[in-house]
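Board notes (copied after class):
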Amino acid sequence: MKDTLRYALLGGATFVVLGGIAAWAITESSAPSSPVAEVRDSSDAGQTQANNQGRSGGKFFHDFDLNHDGQVTRAELEQASNQRFIDASGGKDSLTAEQFAEQAAKDFRDRTERTFHDIDWNSDGKVSLEEYFVPGRAAFQALDRDAAGSVACTRAQTVSDTSDGNNRAARSKSRGGPRGAQSLAVFCRENDLNKDGTVTHAELDQATKQRFASAAGTAKELSPQAYTALEEARFKDINARLFQRMDTNGDGKVTKEEYTARDIKLFARLDKNADGIVTKAEAASGRRTKTPRPS
């Protein structure tokens, strides 16, 4: 894995991880140079966190391709989503915030452990500040698509979250659509220190240093335990916000309909030809293509 990571640094663009949220680095960054970690094709990003911020690619098929035939039908998705709700709620009619968090936490520690090893550039079992800078800087690069040197926090926020096929073209022209807006919101909430609606390189570095210092204390590196504790705090905040968004009537509980609505919208967005089946080609077409590595 480490040899692959070093090669990715030389090649410039690659996948990177932001606290479990998958982000894209699409060109060589103007941010300070640092190693770039390639993330496995499991998303998720996320958000979130990636598991909770959106399912695409390998993660989507892992969750919903029940017969492992390389495609996901609407019936498969509904069956898997309904079963996940039943498992989390214990067979009840609704899901509490505590139950939702418990379900989401099942994948969290394994995902965080993988991320830790991805950004542990020198494989010394610790993450230095320079290594910790990598995910945030790469996320900055991915969000700063016009290379303005700053990330605007308001774009994509007004994009409709409907799954109507007529809105797909508009979403494709947005800064990532509704789920992109969610990831942007997380990025800005953590890094827009002066709350002016824009994140600069300086703000990102300052916010990253503050997070690192809060977890490392007087140490110069983050241990696996310290890194996990830091990411867990961020995860809990994002997870709570996700629950609030799913709880559309604000009653403090999530019904099966509220729970599955998000997966159904995702399916509609990926089902490009509206035939009730999502193929791997359709799922892949919703993601940008990696810049080829140098030969």
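Comment from the instructor: The CA atoms of residues 101 and 116 lie 22 Å apart. Confidence is low (pLDDT under 50) at residues 1-56, 156-180, 287-295.
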